[in-house]
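Dear colleague,

As promised, here are the two records you asked about, laid out in our usual form so they can be pasted straight into your sheet.

NAME FIELD: protein one
SEQUENCE, THEN STRUCTURE:
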Amino acid sequence: MASSSTPKQPSHAHIGGPPDLRRRLAVYKATMKDDWERAQDEDMATAYINGYHETLLHRAVGTGRSIHFVEKLVELMPKEALVLQNLRNDTALSVAARLGNTKAAIILVDKNPDLLQMKNNDGLFPVHLAALYAHKETLLYLMKATTDHHHPTPYADHYSGVLLLVQLIVSGFYDVALDLVHHHPDLSTKFMRIENNDYPLKAIARKASAFRSGCRLNFWQRFIYSSVPVKLENYPNNNPNTCDTQNPADISQVPPQMSGRENYYYYFGTLRHKLRVLLAKAMLLVPHIKHIQEKMSGHDQALQLVKRLCEGLIHSITDFDDTFWNFNEPTLEAARHGIHEVLQELVDTFPDAIWSRDANEHYIFQFAIINRNENVFNLMYQMSEFMQYMINLIDKNGDTLLHVAGKLAPQHKLNLVSGAALQMQRELQWFKEVEKFVIPAYREMKNKDEKTAAMIFSEEHENLVREGEKWMKDTSNSCTIAAALIATVVFAAAITVPGDYNDYGLPNFNKEIGFIIFAMSDAISLFTSSASLLMFLSILTSRYAEQDFLYSLPKRLIIGLVTLFLSITSMMITFSATLYLVFGHKKAWILIPTAALACLPVTLFVSLQFPLLVDVISSTYGPGIFGKQSDRPFY
């Protein structure tokens, strides 16, 4: 069995005391420039060349410009000299692992495998450094080399193994972490904490980016995410919603004893499966879609890892109190970061984890409300009525769930919503939704400061109401000016029609199709701009009470923006029709550039204001952020 202790330093005459400063500097500079001809010096190969006690090999590996230089230098040095360490006790292999220089690592390990077992001042093996600095290629090589050359491996030692597992999780290498747990089950079944009181399940419980709930996807990304199947090559796929694109069903193999109708459905279902597989393979040729598929695989791997760690934690502890408190920390971390997938697995494994609490007696749903994590809060819809009643807990300050909802959301959560008015609307929606789960006796209850939840809400959101009022007025003022200008222009156009009038007082173009389009679009523009003007004026004269931000003000803003958009569009049609009647009569080709130019202001309005309109409509009349996420029970 190979020893993990640090091998003895070789005794060379020049170690720690280079023979000549100029000679040392010349070789140092040559090394930095990958100039082997000038750096070639057998006496200097094992000498310290700077104040950090680095050798030429440290610098050559760290520079990483020429692997040829490293090869020559390693050939020149004796095997024992490769273990020389700098002031941080880093060997050249540690430097290669830290910087992700895989080729240099291969050269060094081939000559002296003992380097794999040498720790630095932080007690880290090279494999730990590769994981810590997220160099996956180097990490995979070092793990394989360590397994091939040393038995037991450094990470078979429990502390080193748990440390490596945590580092893999932090760096996002969930596939490697799964493989490590698979080959070393003790890392999940024997509970141990490392520095900073950390352990694997706690580490992954704060990695929001590792799960679907922690990724903000646009419409197309969500569509791709739900359409493209995920395929895990190295691990069993337990997700029933995924599709194996490598082994599609054979349509020629029909199960025996099936009726004609059953045969039809079987053929149809199998054909649909094959078409889906072909579509998935075609979609994966697009780089953006392939990136989404890789992200899905990462999420699936992270979830599998959580399941393995939960099962391991249950088997590692026999005392109920220890089990509760060891589940307590990852449960609170997951609730704090809004990772409902982890919470679901934790509570499924150990149902009492639902009562996890911190020093302030805050439970997971209080964390969800404080941090405005709707994914965690929505787990309440998956609970039985009895459990919904049981979670009506009061903390040490006498605050109910509704008191907690009355407090202002964290700024980073407010910033996810555009505009102070919509932020205030979202806060009211949270307050109203939490109120549904609070028993009637608690809705008017006062806390230790003699304040009800409504009083706390008003105090906490006083500044946000003022900011929302200012945002609404600024938006309305700008749109009011635009609506008034449009109304003025189209009214003038209505009384000065193109082509003048005939002797009977009728417009000369009154029988032209273009004139009918002109008249109709002009009327629509005038009416819609007037309606928009009135809506924005009503916003300016509103009382701006808290409850107005929930439906009243957003509804007026929606009507004002929609009518303003219609008035701009119809005004462009009016102008285009006039231009065609006056200058393009019987010249159809003029319609193309006119229509193209008329689309410019409409396109600009859509690109600049349409996202705001969509946000307002979605937040006011859309499905909202609350609701049941699945039929999976949450105890």
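NAME FIELD: protein two
SEQUENCE, THEN STRUCTURE:
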Amino acid sequence: MEKAIILILGALLLIPPVTGATLTCPTKAPLGEITCGLEGNGTGIIYLESVDGIPAKDYTIIIEHNHRDFVSSSNVHDTFELPAKVIFWADNVLGSIVDSYVGSLPHWIFMNKEHTFVFNIVMENGSTKVFEQRIFLTGNPTGRA
């Protein structure tokens, strides 16, 4: 039994977490485009794991580093260097999740509520870090200013 525990602890030490990486998103943002800052060093890939506990489907994230754009989507995951800007459209992400499970709903239903976006960073060396970002999405349900 002790050998099994030592082996498990040893295996966990071989997969280091991403150290020094931070993802900072606004705590309040309009339903459309959201820009987050990803700080740290190294090269990696970012995934959108889930929104409000529901697995993300059919999403697109733009990663901007040194005036170059990289893409992370449900099908494509470009490798990029940190630090970078992470840009996504909350209305598209939420709308595609809802469409996958229950069909179309008006986007105003997502407004004036807090949503939890979970991102996973996988670095070139195999280390990972999960970021949970709570963002209150604002907007006028009538579409008027």
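A couple of things worth noting about protein two: The chain has one domain: 18-138. The radius of gyration is 17 Å.

Best,
R.
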